[in-house]
Amino acid sequence: MTDFEAPRLYIEEWMATIPGLDRKRLAERMKVAGGTISKKLARPENIDGVWLAQFAAALELASPIELYRDPTAAAAVTSPESKLRAALLAFGVDKDDLGKAIAVVKGFLDDDGERSAQALPGDRSAPASRRRAKEPSR
Questions:
Q1: CA torsion, points 26, 32, 38, 39, in degrees to nearest 10?
Q2: CA-to-CA distance for 61 and 18, rounded, in angstroms?
């Protein structure tokens, strides 16, 4: 048993954005039985990555991560940090560790000091010597 609550899925809210789309028609789009859709929506913890991808495709979404976003919410969710938060939650990062995970990702993206640069001509180490050679290799 886990100590954290799984993030909420907004599948039915996304269904409402497509006129005339009900569970039966969604099941037809996904090529599954209508009862399967009802069972999955009743127990979202049983929806794995494959099912998320199928729901996203049937709902004409660009990414399964969109299923974790309320389509009726303000557009502020489209910021890169909000998308990163949604992605990390979707991949199972604990809410308590979310801040640390975002800081790590930002560290990788913002670290200009660690980029490799062309070495200056005088900033090279001496060439290695071949074994038993009197002069360094060239």
A1: -150
A2: 11
